[in-house]
Specification:
This protein has eleven helices and six strands. By secondary structure, the chain is of the alpha+beta class. Among the domains are: 158 residues, no CATH class; 34 residues, no CATH class. The strands form three sheets. A two-stranded antiparallel ribbon has the order 1-2. α3 packs across α4. The mean pLDDT is 83.
Length: 284
């Protein structure tokens, strides 16, 4: 048998003086014993750093209520209530949802969408880094609002309007939630045209590529397609023959006669003379 963790074999251990008698200084008087070992210096504390990679997932894309923005708001309002009840030390909230909870749930919904679909722009602004000039949203001058959402910067900061009107919330292009919001405004404003719907939508939200997206959403609804107004074009009559057939100049002539006008020569002490004007107009 071989023991790799023992420095010697059992036979050698029985004959080893250190095992039987101990260290040599124990056989001497205590005055000859060596001094105590130096105290070990305090080592600096080294805390382990655990690196965790968090992956943002668009939780709204898996929701079965994607076709209804009202239901989406209420679902995320209940999620917000659950998070608040877990953090609160007081009695948990119960009963019907309040307006504040619905608004907070809507912010939670839109924030999760922006963090996934506008990740580079959201990450740069949330970390205080310079905004990437190669971004497609640089013309909108996006800002990060106090609610943690990306808003359009624009030039209406000093306008006497609501905050959401001056700085609409950015919505990603061709996203199911963006479509649900457009459908919600379509029903709210009684199936208006694309221009009216886009103007109402931009009072609070700014959909990237919104003009084409709104038109594509409206054209898919049969009722909106049927109610789309068509500009009536009046059928013009034929031009008269005298306007389209060539004739010699001044074959048909109109005369306009006016006067008198008084004309005075440049010479001194000359009297004024009456003048008349005749205007001949060609009607050929």
């Amino acid at each position: 048998m071989t023991w790799h963790h023992v420095g010697c074999t059992p036979k050698e251990l029985l004959e080893h003086s250190l095992w039987v008698n101990g260290p040599p200084f124990l056989l001497q008087s205590s005055s000859n014993w060596p001094s105590l070992l130096d105290s070990v210096k305090d080592l600096p504390e080294r805390r382990s750093v655990a690196l965790i990679g968090a992956v943002c997932i668009d939780s709204s894309s898996n929701c079965k209520f994607l076709n209804s923005f009202d239901k989406l708001q209420r679902v995320f309002a209940y999620i917000y209530r659950f998070i608040s009840n877990c953090r609160a030390k007081s009695a948990p909230l119960k009963g019907r949802l309040s307006v504040e909870e619905i608004n907070s749930g809507t912010v939670l919904l839109l924030r999760s969408i922006q963090q996934v679909n506008l990740a580079k722009d959201y990450g740069s602004l949330s970390q205080g880094k310079p905004y990437p000039q190669k971004s497609k949203l640089v013309s909108l001058r996006p800002i990060l609002g106090s609610d943690g959402l990306l808003h359009v910067g624009g030039r209406l900061q000093n306008a006497n309007l609501d905050y959401d009107t001056r700085h609409p919330i950015l919505l990603p292009k061709d996203h199911p939630v963006t479509k649900a919001i457009i459908v919600y405004y379509r029903e709210k404003y009684w199936h208006g045209g694309s221009q009216a719907l886009l103007a109402a939508l931009r009072q609070r939200y700014w959909s990237i590529g919104g003009r084409k997206f709104v038109a594509s959403v409206i054209n898919k609804f049969v009722r909106c397609f049927r109610m789309k107004p068509v500009t009536w074009e009046h059928v013009m009559g034929s031009l008269p023959a005298k306007r389209v057939q060539p004739n010699p100049a001044f074959l048909t002539t109109g005369v306009d006669y006016c006067g008198p006008f008084y004309h005075k020569a440049e010479a001194r002490n000359k009297t004024a003379h009456k003048c008349y004007t005749a205007v001949f107009v060609c009607f050929s």
